[in-house]
Amino acid sequence: MNHTEGRQDEALQAPATPPGGAHPATRVEDPAPRHAGRTPGQAPGQTPGQASGQARPDDDSARAALLRVRAEVGKSIVGQDPAVTGLLIGLLADGHVLLEGVPGVAKTLLVRTLAAALSLDTKRVQFTPDLMPGDITGSLIYEARASEFTFREGPVFTNILLADEINRTPPKTQASLLEAMEERQVSVDGVSRRLPSPFIVAATQNPVEYEGTYPLPEAQLDRFLLKLTLPLPGRDDEIEVIRRHSVGFDPRDLAAAGVRAVAGVEDIDHARTAVARVAVAPEVLAYIVDVVRATRTSPSFQLGVSPRGATALLNTSRAWAWLSGRSFVTPDDVKALTLPALRHRVALRPEAQMDGVDVDDVLGGILGTVPVPR
Fold it and tell me: What is the pTM of this model?
């Protein structure tokens, strides 16, 4: 990972001037001139009568509520808007998110604040080398009075599980999350127990070159929908962070910082239904596949993206298109999500690592060579 100041997923800025007073930022523009004559909600390649995913009145209400979340998170977090948007996309696409950054860039605080703004239950697990699988999933406890074993739920039974420093625990404990992440259930002693809905894992990790870290198994990495990088703040942002602390900001007291719930489970459920209606034209589907297949033939990668990664790119592109106020996916939506959706699903060749090649740079090069549908 390149830790140069200001490095982040700029494409994941929220739409310009969102409701709720969130910070204006750049957006992925709708390339309307490419598809002149298309009716609203009509995807590329569709005839006017085929447009699907038409916006409904309640969609605007749900979208406004979720965009207001950015303003609430901004009351405690400075300069990490792309990460906030990425977490929202993870919720809308029902997928897990991996946050990577050096210690002290507010990864944990970001997740806690997001949960508070969404009125979701969240539990935190500090991953350590001696953490056991039962410490996460729960275990059977013998009740002497009843002379029987009863199941005591672990912290995984929540809406947002904050897996803090997930790569500081051995692979055996990391693997205990696989069933929960894939099946949304926990099996103990032959009994499967469903997890609450919504449920996502928001895991933080330090860069793998840091002392005391264990690389996540490929099978677990592939379960994460997105991998977001949190950079060190720019000078102006860091001044604002210090200013807030100088006037009494306490990261342990979000209520005192003015953070309140501005959206809830109903908004998330409605948004997920709306995202499922977002239209994707055949040529955009083919573009997603071409981008993914190009990772498998890149001379810099020894491991390319699997079909699961193509599905992740599709689902996140639809969520981003909906957040941007559109009922169809454009190639620019795919470009905006390529890095966070694919960067953890590829592996550099040793010789590329020795040459200092960066995964994001290779993926950016692929986007520059794969033909874009028009």
Answer: 0.82
